[in-house]
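Justification of resources, computational component.

The compute hours requested in this renewal are based largely on the per-chain cost of generating structure records like the one below. Each record pairs the submitted sequence with a full structure-token output. That output is archived, and it is also reused by downstream analysis tasks.
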Amino acid sequence: MFAADSGSERATTIEEYQNTCTEFITDISKDYSDWVDRYSLGDDESRRRKAVIQNVVKMTNEWINRFGTTIKKVDIIMNDGVNKMAENTAGYPFKYDVFVNNSRHYTTHPVGVVRVNLKAMPRPGRLMRVGNYQKDQLFLISSSSPVSFSLSSASMTPADVLDDYVIIDAKSCQKHDVISITAVVEEIEKDYVTESRGYSTLILLT
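The structure output for this chain reads:
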């Protein structure tokens, strides 16, 4: 994000950069809460989405301060938080969860091979599959050390239920490295994509 780049150029210490980025997360959350209001949802759903956004602010800023020991790590954690706010502002019209070590959203895993479980269930009469994050990019993966990934091709074939794994090879990483992965799934009806949603997960290697 350009804000992160310009902020890192101005910061003289990692603590100063952490403060810049936590302030950014807090400020931008107000824009996402305003977008929730524009959707004219029911009161309960509006409150629920805004509460999730505020929890993202709390958790993201905690992770920035605890684990953002380099500018790269701070950027990964911050951008993951922005993605989470956007995802929860839009909401999920179907059931979709991502698990790492039986935890969601903010997770830990030993250094090595990380199994990321994608679980999604479409609405009645529709199918589900893994889609691309962008045209030529399957997932958005940001890591403070190099990683690679693999996914079964069957995950991209529409099915009644999606329950599969992205395998991240993080054996070249170090303890306290961070990885963010955003996985998009698509709901299919009569060969057309009716809805697609992303889900961002932040992983601390231990």
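The first helix runs from residue 2 to 10. The helical segments are 2-10, 14-38, 43-67, 71-90.
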